[in-house]
Amino acid sequence: MINPIISKRKNFKKPIKVPGDKSISHRSIILGSIAKGRTEVSNFLTGEDCICTQKAFQALGVEIETYFGNPDNPTLRINGNGIYSLKEAKEDIYLGNSGTGMRLLSGLFAGLPFNTKLTGDESLSSRPMKRVIDPLTQMGANIASNEGKAPLNINGTNNLRGITYHSPIASAQVKSCLLLAGLNAEGVTTIIEPEKSRDHSERMLEYFGSNISYHSGSLEVSIKKSEKDLSGQIIRVPGDISSAAFFMVAGAICEDSEIFLENVGINPTRTGILDVLTMMNIDFNVENIRDEAREPRADILIKSSEIKGCEISGNLIPRLIDEIPVIAILAAQANGTTVIKNAEELKVKESNRITSTVNMLKELGVNVEETDDGMIIEGLAAKEFPGSSSSTDKIVIDSHGDHRIAMSSAIAALQSSKPVEILKSEYVNTSFPGFFELLNKEEARA
Ligand code: S3P
């Protein structure tokens, strides 16, 4: 792929429809594959991460029909035969770049009576899996790893036991992994989190008829094996708020701009970015709020704004963890300083996102200090990004193979004094296929 080079833009006025939510797309394949009956998933995210999960279940014998011809509404039909119809895969299961895929599937496969080997790309193979291996082992699972990292060799069993697990981190991947293991364990499996992480698994497990008990405000969730199979459902996936975040920031930082984002998921465990927009004085409006398949969604209008710095910390962090690189771009355009704290989880994302976000800002010419659990960003008060002293006629940013750093750099380019070239941008396809095309569409130009 040729490295994209993006230039300054103003008067960015366009309706944008971002692709389906990644977390919900993964979960819809998983639950559709273990349910009985047909599950139809529309607005499915065809990013590489979710396609790996789709292929994983096909390798285990699940019949999945894909209708990806219409890019505006990719659809999946899963003809589920119940959890016990899954069979050992003939080959290793490759999960690409996807931490969600690997952690959620390890929970499910630990409780099924066959062996599975889960592998991933270089980034995924360096990410911590002990956070799921340890509690699964307490449940009676048998998982061999490469010192707590992938590949994972799962020697499945139907003798898992429910446990009460006080998770040391607010992680939806850990929580969802244990819920999926709990579907097949004797007794009750309870997870208690230090702060609330995204609750898509809870909502969807309830929608499919599992024996789950949780309350939206609570940090505790429990699940028991059901006597009956889960039953197939209709799911229309909302647009991914994490993908919409790039265009929210574009609308706020580009001069004379107004961006209308259609059909964005606004599950309250994911809307930390909207709280930040309010704290930073952004002119935006959430309209047409509706609910479908237990997931709220809305349209969001964002306008060019005079941005104010703020502090982002505490229980806000899990509600915007994936948006921090692009929030850093917003902060770098603010009047005043922005402090991001308690975000040490960023160190174990697709790259060390504290370091890669700080490096991106330094290349853009922003004064930024890296801290142990976040960063301190000095805003440029709406001045164009000047580039670092080493940049010549263009600013070059290495995404470190991290999709969210690549997309955040592209948004920064819209307000830069020199064109921005992005290295290793192909990773954008893991979560947002078509991102650069959408950004460059003629109608989106000044
Ligand atoms: C996800 C949970 C989050 C998030 C990731 C997707 C999920 O990770 O960063 O992109 O779908 O459960 P953690 O649960 O590890 O924080």
Short description:
Helices cover 28% and strands 25% of the residues. The protein has helices spanning 22-34, 48-59, 99-110, 130-138, 172-182, 200-207, 241-253, 272-279, 324-332, 353-364, 403-413, 435-440; strands at 5-6, 13-16, 36-42, 63-67, 75-81, 93-94, 115-119, 143-146, 149-155, 164-166, 188-192, 211-214, 220-224, 234-236, 258-265, 283-292, 295-303, 311-312, 337-340, 368-371, 374-378, 395-398, 420-423. The longest helix has 13 residues, at 22-34.
Keywords, please?
UDP-n-acetylglucosamine1-carboxyvinyl-transferase, Chain, 4-stranded mixed sheet, 28% helix
3D architecture notes:
This protein has 446 residues and is α/β, with parallel strands linked by helices. The protein folds into 2 domains: 5-19 and 238-440, Enolpyruvate transferase domain (UDP-n-acetylglucosamine1-carboxyvinyl-transferase, Chain, Alpha-beta prism); 22-236, UDP-n-acetylglucosamine1-carboxyvinyl-transferase, Chain (Alpha-beta prism), CATH 3.65.10.10. The protein contains 12 helices and 23 strands. The strands form 6 sheets. A 4-stranded mixed β-sheet has the order 2-15-17-16. Strands 4-5-3-14 form a 4-stranded mixed β-sheet, covered by helices on one side. It has a 4-stranded mixed β-sheet with strand order 6-7-9-8. Helix 3 (99-110) links the parallel strand 6 (93-94) and strand 7 (115-119). The mean pLDDT is 97. The structure holds shikimate-3-phosphate (S3P).
